[in-house]
Each structure stands twice: as structure tokens, then as C-alpha cells.
């Protein structure tokens, strides 16, 4: 909440997400993506891909944050961590609107137990990581000032808090975005075929789909990711900000907002506003991103020459804006590109017979981050 403290605490995070640091993380991401592909291939019949994407993102973030310690892809959720995370979001969302109530709710037994379970788990991972040091430059290499040996190490409580933050902010949002993207591809087979054709072009059989060398040239892949986050934003209600208490208030457009007021820009509403994105405002239509950048003609996009078209890049901010935006944006994009290429190079996706796609919208709940319903798929190995 304190801007100066935030900016000071953010410095270590900023060092942890430079291009050089991201290059250090890539082998971890690639290994977990390969493990995900293998684990999916070991399942018989129907697969809830949402669950496996949760496991991937948590394992990958634990590798990057703590140098390891989580094996959900191998063992399942034996420590009940993901279950606790998923069920703690409603209470966390409530207290974000009445933050003064948080310390009191922490005294309620079942809420306190959930908090203690997650804190204990992250505390053990943090202690283990600090005792053994770093085998490679993971996130804690920067958060614990190991990259600057002359600086004092932050307190254990701060490192545990940062570990919890890394898991929630880094794992849940990425798995949410990936789950929604796979849902969109499952329910839009033409888009899925186009994406697989692009993957086949850059990563034909025998090529390593986890190698990132082609990613920035895969424009349809980027369009699919952007469109998935536009239609199903991982943080639908947006990021909360506070008008400073000593500011005298602020005027937003024609509206005066008093000092001390909490404000957020509702991402879902902005992304689904036809003034920003049209036509097919609420549809999954990746072509809009290629059309907006001149990489696709109206004809190829299926848009009449005289049809109105709106595409407001400034309105698309799934990672927020400004000095308090998501510092891990580039890591999240890298993870999503690697997973989509790895899974779709290997498998065809088919919806389970009798599954109602409308159940996803019904079960997609906004608790700052989202809770998602199962996405049952049948996977077939591609020839």
C-alpha cells in the first residue's frame, strides 16, 4: 500500500524478470512442459486438462521461486495445497473490500487453518531453499539478495510472503489463462487447426516445441493467447488502487473520487465493450489481432470490406498498467507459449461426448483471480 515501500520491494522482482533472468528459467519451464505432455499421455480416456494445467503452473512456479519442492504433476495434490488455494480466494476477495476486517477473520478457526496450512507449506519451502542455497539463478536468488552479496538478506517473514505471492500471482493466473485458452480452442476447432498448422510450420515432428527461438514469429500463437485473455481475463475485476488519503481526491473523466476510495477498472467489462473490440465482441476470434496489426486482410479474416471494426489496444491490459503492473508478464507469456506448442504438437483435442461448453461460463467465478470448472477433453496422439 505504501508506494515508496512497494517500489523498494519491487526492485528485486524487477531484477528477477530481466531477459537474462528469464533465459535462466527456461530449462525449468521446458522440463515441466515436457512432464505435462508425458503425464497427459499416461491418462486413460477423459482428461480434465484444467487440473493438469494447475499442476504444471504450480510445479513450474515452485521451481522458479524455491528451486523445487512441488511435484503435483508426478504425485497429485498430496499436500492439499491447490485445494487450499482454490478455497481461500472467496474470503480473500471479501477482505480486499474491507481490509480492516482481515486480522479479525484470521481468528476464525477454519479460515486461520487454511492460512496456516499455506503459510507453513511456503515457510518450509523457503527454509529449505535458504539452507541449501541456489543450484541455479531462481527467483529467490534475487529476492534473497544472493545476486548482491554485500546487501543484507530480507527477513524470513518477508521471504515467506514473497513466496506465497509468487505462487498465487505466478501460478494461479497462468493456469487460469491457459485453461481458458484450451477451452476456447476446444470449442473453436477451426482456430485450433490454424494454431496447430502454425506449430507444425515452426516445430515439425522431431523439432523441440519447448525451444523458444520461433515464438516471436508465431503471430497466430500470440493472437490466440491475447484473445483468450481478452474473452476470459484471469483477473476479471481488475487491479485495485487507492486514491491517496492526503491527495484531496482525484477526478477520473467527469467523476470526482474522494481520497481514501478504492478503485478498480473492471477488466471483463472493458474487454467486452464493443467500443473497444468489435465485431464479435464476446466471441473468441484471434483473427482480430492479426487484422489490427495488418498481418491479415479483411477478406482472410472473414470481414466484409465496409464492415465496422474496432480494436483498442490501450483497452487491453490483462497485466495492468503503470509502475505497479505485473512484473512477471514476460514469464507468463513464455510459459503459455511453451505449453501450447508442446501440447498441441503432440495431441489433438476433442470435447467429451455430452459435455455442455456453457458450463464453463457458469463455473468461471471471479474472486479477484478466478476459480475454473473442469474442462474434460479426449486427447489423441497426432500422427
Automatic annotation (TrEMBL):
The keyword Heme applies. SUPFAM superfamilies: Cytochrome P450. It holds the Pfam family p450. Pathway: Secondary metabolite biosynthesis. InterPro entries: Cyt_P450, Cyt_P450_E_grp-I, Cyt_P450_sf, Cytochrome_P450_monoxygenase. Coiled coil: none annotated. Heme binds at residue 326. The keyword Repeat does not apply. One of its GO terms (molecular function) is iron ion binding. Keywords: Heme, Iron, Metal-binding, Monooxygenase, Oxidoreductase. Its cofactor is heme. Belongs to the cytochrome P450 family. This is Cytochrome P450 67.
Amino acid at each position: 500500500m505504501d508506494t515508496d515501500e512497494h517500489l523498494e520491494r519491487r526492485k528485486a522482482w524487477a531484477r528477477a524478470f530481466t531477459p537474462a533472468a528469464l533465459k535462466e528459467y527456461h530449462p525449468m519451464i521446458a522440463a515441466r512442459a515436457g512432464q505435462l505432455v508425458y503425464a497427459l499421455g499416461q491418462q486413460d480416456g477423459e482428461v480434465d486438462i484444467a487440473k493438469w494445467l494447475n499442476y504444471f503452473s504450480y510445479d513450474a512456479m515452485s521451481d522458479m521461486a524455491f528451486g523445487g519442492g512441488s511435484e503435483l504433476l508426478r504425485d497429485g495434490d498430496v499436500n492439499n495445497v491447490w485445494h487450499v488455494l482454490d478455497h481461500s480466494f472467496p474470503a480473500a476477495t471479501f477482505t480486499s473490500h474491507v481490509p480492516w476486517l482481515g486480522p479479525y477473520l484470521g481468528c476464525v478457526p477454519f479460515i486461520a487453518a487454511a492460512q496456516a496450512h499455506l503459510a507453513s507449506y511456503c515457510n518450509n519451502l523457503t527454509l529449505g531453499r535458504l539452507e541449501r542455497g541456489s543450484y541455479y539463478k531462481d527467483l529467490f536468488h534475487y529476492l534473497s539478495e544472493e545476486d548482491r552479496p554485500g546487501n543484507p538478506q530480507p527477513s524470513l517473514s518477508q521471504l515467506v510472503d514473497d513466496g506465497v505471492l509468487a505462487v498465487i500471482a505466478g501460478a494461479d493466473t497462468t493456469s487460469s489463462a491457459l485453461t481458458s485458452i484450451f477451452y476456447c480452442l476446444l470449442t473453436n476447432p477451426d482456430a485450433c487447426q490454424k494454431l496447430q498448422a502454425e506449430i507444425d510450420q515452426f516445430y515439425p515432428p522431431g523439432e523441440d516445441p519447448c525451444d523458444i527461438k520461433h515464438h516471436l514469429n508465431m503471430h497466430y500463437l500470440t493472437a490466440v493467447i491475447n484473445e483468450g485473455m481478452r474473452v476470459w481475463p484471469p483477473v476479471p475485476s481488475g487491479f485495485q488502487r487507492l486514491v491517496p488519503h492526503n491527495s484531496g481526491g482525484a477526478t477520473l473523466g467527469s467523476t470526482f473520487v474522494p481520497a481514501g476510495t478504492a478503485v478498480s477498472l473492471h477488466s471483463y467489462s472493458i474487454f467486452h465493450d464493443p467500443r473497444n473490440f468489435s465485431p464479435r465482441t464476446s466471441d473468441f476470434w484471434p483473427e482480430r489481432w492479426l487484422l489490427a496489426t495488418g498481418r491479415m486482410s479483411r477478406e482472410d479474416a472473414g470481414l466484409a470490406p465496409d464492415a465496422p471494426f474496432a480494436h483498442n489496444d490501450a483497452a487491453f491490459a490483462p497485466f495492468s498498467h503503470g509502475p505497479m503492473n505485473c512484473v512477471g508478464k514476460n514469464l507468463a507469456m513464455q510459459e503459455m507459449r511453451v505449453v501450447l506448442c508442446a501440447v498441441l504438437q503432440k495431441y489433438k483435442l476433442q470435447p467429451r461426448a455430452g459435455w455442455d461448453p456453457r458450463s464453463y461460463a457458469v463455473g468461471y467465478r471471479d474472486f479477484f483471480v478466478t476459480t475454473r470448472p473442469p474442462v474434460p477433453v479426449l486427447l489423441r496422439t497426432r500422427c
